Amino acid sequence: MHRRAARFYEAQGEWAEAITHALEASDYSTAAHLMEHTVEQFWLRGEAATIARWVLALPDRLARDHARLLLTTALYLLTTVVQTTREQRERRYQEARQLMARVEGALQAQTGETTSQISVTGTEAGDVEREASAAEHALLQWRLRVLRRLMAVIEASASGDVERLRSMQEVIEEAQDHGEEAIWQTVPLGGSFTFHYTVRREGAQLLPRLLSLKERVSQEASRYASIRVRQWLALSAVRAGQLRLASEESQEALTQIEHLQGFALLKGYAQIALAQVYYQWNRLEEARELLRTVVHHAAAWQQLEQLAWGYAELIQVELARRARPAAELALHEVEELVQRERFEIYPDWLPAMQAQCWLAQGQLEAASRWAASVVFPEGPWEGRLYDAFPVVIQVYFAERRFREAVELLDSFRGHLDRPANLAVTITYLAQSLVALHHAGQSERARLIATRLFALTEPEGYLRVYLDEGEPMRQALLALLAPHSHKPELAPSTAAYLSKLLAAFEHEKQDASPPVVTATTGEPALSPAWQASARSSVPDVSLTRREQEVLRLLAAGASNQDIAHTLVISLDTVKKHVSNLLGKLGASSRTQAISQARARSLL
């Protein structure tokens, strides 16, 4: 009956049911072939744990014949480690190690068998067979080495061990040259992306390699590789100052993702890249909606890296919108996430974020104390310093310390004026323009402006100017002042300047005072939260199962705990959590529980 059910569901394209019934029938060969056919689409839908459970159910005797499936499953497990909760992380590592150990055991057994057969097989056909077997053996050994390197990169990234990542750079790069299929080339490329984009902040350096690989993966069948490369390409293009390329690649990745059924694991990264572009184009509402979608789905599906990253970008957008309470709320969510999951790398982001919020609230003394505590070394910088530096300069601007700002900008020009990260360079030039103008160095200011406009005008940058506020507006106005001994601005540059000044005027008109509560004088919640809080009637309708899930969430249960308690699949739990967040207008579990209590649903 199970075999008949497996054949029926396979014909219908219902792969999960087909595999489940094949395993129940102990028809492991059929189950393995079905897994090989569908492993990628299950991973793209966030079901790496499901795949691992199925593959681990295969008997050891099939490990040699399906070694590629085992190692691909281990790869997919490891690529989701940074997304998982603390409880899930070690389980993913353990399952990946089990899969790798099975393949290693099969390879050792095969080596012994091959040695014993050498003396009895001397035909030409036997030689060909041995050569093919040796090639497959070498390929699997290479994949095992790549997986071990991936584990080391993940562990070093999670612990914030920058020195270990630096020492591993050559080992990571070495694997790039192996003539492998695209999905496996993304593994060493992912290590390089982590090192160059996250640690060294040199994302632009990856563009040539990513553009080349994009052409290659477009000719292969791997949707994972295609989406992954476009995602990295979009994020790196932002670092390269190429906003239009970033927009094209992120939208193309989202178009590919739209053809997938159900939840798409990589969607949030493409949305973040597109939100970064929209932010610089000052399309704040579109950026905000994208990021709210990211944090909503990431919270429901417990995709922690996307959740933290989405909140970090959302803080910037909310501050630009002058929605300071919403920015504070997002910052609080990141702090809770870091504390709950014991992230080692994300706390580096938080101080600079908090200082930006202090500046927005007019708490200059607190921001000044933080700025004074930041030390910028002459040697290599960690990634967090690139986040901190522009905020320190903004503190100097708020204190009217323009000459000191010029000195600081000049002293670290080698770190900030770098082609490997034009996004950092553009911010550096913008702040230099402000500092030089207000320090009375108008000649240097005009030279800086010429170079800055050459980088930002073709790509349509706005926010890099608007974020510096009134000091920048005054510096731009000075560039329009007539100078008899200076050449006139090019028509396109003059038009761009007019557009920038119009954007400042529009932002000034849209400015509104922060909303505070009438009773306490404390900042209020975001408008959506206020609307929900004003409603004392519990007008949200939950199904019985959603009520059960909500009660377990309030008790602190993880998705896995809920699945075990209610005897339902993890995928079903995630859908219920997503529905709950949507009905309650929340972007995190904490918000959902607060909203539920406010509406007397708990």
Please compute the radius of gyration using only Cα atoms.
27 Å
Helix content, binned percent = over 70%
The SS-based structural class is mainly alpha
CATH superfamily of the domain at 344-510: Tetratricopeptide repeat domain
Count of individual helical segments: 32
End-to-end separation in angstroms reads 44 Å
The CATH architecture term of the domain at 344-510 is Alpha Horseshoe
The profile of the biggest β sheet is:
none
CATH class of the domain at 344-510: Mainly Alpha
The counted number of beta strands is 0
Shape: globular
How much β-strand is present in the residues? under 5%
Reported by name, the CATH topology of the domain at 344-510 is: Serine Threonine Protein Phosphatase 5, Tetratricopeptide repeat
Mean pLDDT reading? 83
Low-confidence stretches: 512-538
Reconstruct the topology from this structure.
Elements: H1 2-12, H2 15-24, H3 28-44, H4 48-56, H5 67-79, H6 86-117, H7 124-158, H8 162-167, H9 169-174, H10 182-199, H11 207-217, H12 223-239, H13 243-258, H14 267-280, H15 284-300, H16 304-320, H17 324-341, H18 350-361, H19 364-373, H20 383-398, H21 402-411, H22 413-416, H23 422-438, H24 442-456, H25 463-466, H26 469-480, H27 491-510, H28 527-534, H29 544-554, H30 559-566, H31 570-584, H32 589-598
Helix pairs in contact: 1-2, 2-3, 3-4, 3-5, 4-5, 4-6, 5-6, 5-7, 6-7, 7-10, 10-12, 11-12, 12-13, 12-14, 13-14, 14-15, 14-16, 15-16, 15-31, 16-17, 16-18, 17-18, 18-19, 18-20, 19-20, 20-23, 21-23, 23-24, 23-26, 26-27, 29-31, 30-31, 31-32
